[in-house]
Amino acid sequence: MTPADAAIDQNAPGAMSHDEYYKMAEAVLPGGGLGGYSLPEDVRFVIHKGEAGRLQDVRGKWHIDYVGGAGALILGHAFPSVVKAVQEAAPDGLHFFGTLNERAVQLAEQLVKAIPCADKIAYTTTGSEATFYAMRIARAYTGRSKILKCEGGYHGNHDYSNFSVSPRAASNFPSGQPDTAGMPANMSENVLISPYNDLDAVREIVRANKDDLAAVIIEPVQRIIFPKDGYLEGLRDICNESDVLLIFDEVVTGFRLGYGGAQGYFGVTPDLASYGKIVGGGGPVGCVGGPAEIMEQCNPVNRGKSNYAYINGTLHGNPIGCAAGLATLEELRTPGFYDRLHSRAAEIQSRCQEVLDAHKLPAMAIGRGSLWQIAFMDKEPEDFGDFIQADMASTRELDLHQMRNGLYVLPAVRRFVSSVHTDQDFEDTVKALDAACSAMK
Question: Active site residue: 154, 160, 231, 275, which one?
Answer without folding.
Answer: 154
